[in-house]
Amino acid sequence: MHTPHGDIPTPCFMPVGTLANVKTLTPEQVKAAGAHIILSNTYHLHLQPGESIVQDAGGLHQFMNWDGPILTDSGGFQVFSLSEMRTIDDRGVTFKSPRDGSIIEFTPEKSIQIQNDLGSDIIMAFDECPPYPATREAVMQAVRRTTEWISRCISAHRRSHDQALFGIVQGGVYPDLRQQSARELREFELPGYAIGGVSVGEPPELIEGIVRETAPLLPSDRPRYLMGVGTHPEMVAAVAGGVDLFDCVIPTRWARHGTVVVRGERINIKNLPHRRDYRPLDPDCHCYTCAHYSRAYLCHLIRSKELLGYTLLAIHNIAELMSFTTQMRQAILDGSFSSRWRPQNFTSSPDLNS
RNA sequence: GCGGGCGUAGCCAAGUGGUUAAGGCAUCGGUUUGUGGUACCGACAUUCGGGAGUUCGAUCCUCCUCGUCCGCC
Length: 354
Prior knowledge:
Layout: E1 2-3, E2 6-7, E3 12-15, H1 27-32, E4 38-41, H2 42-47, H3 51-56, H4 60-64, E5 70-73, H5 76-81, E6 86-88, E7 93-96, E8 103-106, H6 108-118, E9 122-124, H7 136-156, E10 164-169, H8 175-186, E11 192-195, H9 204-214, E12 224-226, H10 232-240, E13 245-248, H11 250-256, E14 259-262, E15 265-268, H12 288-292, H13 295-303, H14 307-333, H15 337-340
Parallel strand pairs: 3-13, 4-5, 5-9, 9-10, 10-11, 11-12, 12-13
Antiparallel strand pairs: 1-2, 6-7, 7-8, 14-15
This protein binds one RNA strand through helix 2, helix 5 and helix 11.
């Protein structure tokens, strides 16, 4: 996949950060961990510091000192997940700012304008992301609005020459609604498509079903992006279904809470056995953290709530995930993907020892 | 030696004559999926310094004892 700020190999995982720091990392650290692209957030940047400040800084890349590709989420998800007070109608979403209580309106036009101002490489459509569980009627309405809104997003988009607008498929857990949403979005011939409305609380088995039914409905010559996912098995299943791009808060959020992923398995570095374990997290991992620090030291840092601990764990978790997607990519290239992982089974753990 | 205060979990600490003895820290686990970073959930005192007594029933009341702190000799 090509963007003005560089190519993105696929499948690829995007670390998520409100700014390029991914909470606790510098762009250099993010890059060294193997990340090609990062996700930033329209909703948060609009609330603080405001897109005009970013625009006057010369755009998001310059503002945050990240010269690689950036994708911005449209704010549709945050409206669903963060706003306490909100009303959604056909025009858009009105909500109370959690920062100062002011009334803020997000419409497709507003979201696109903000993302144009921010200057990211990939911008996302403003969609309605219904919760789980949601009634069929509620999901039908979300699909209808998401389709209507994509057309307004396209009309409002002023930088289609250097910003790729991705559409988002909704439809919840209803296969026919997913199908309808995908079919309607394809009409717009967008540069990329996302599967949205997953990882909103539904059981993992359902995610697999949704992805495996939805991904094939999207054009295979365009990037297919599964939003908000996820764990290793979830990504394996999604890649098997044709998904190219992922984003997830897991590696950095887990890092801030002391959980690391080692060879596909999660471990809590705060646990007793690590207090005197002077080995690295993973002797085969090439990340900065594994090259220089022991589990015992990381255990100490996290228990002491030292900021360095969050940084070192985030570096490892991102590196581990990037290494994992790299392995999947190579397996696809040499034809060993389907024999190496059993993608039809979500719970099958990837064999990382081979 | 005399007078007084206090002893509740590893630490701090609430509390009542009747059986669930608050809470916090620490400890030990778990959770986290299109990110308001340091969060959330669970476990953790058959027992209230020790002994005897009063009582249907004592962590709580009485006596003794031990420890500790503060005054005075």
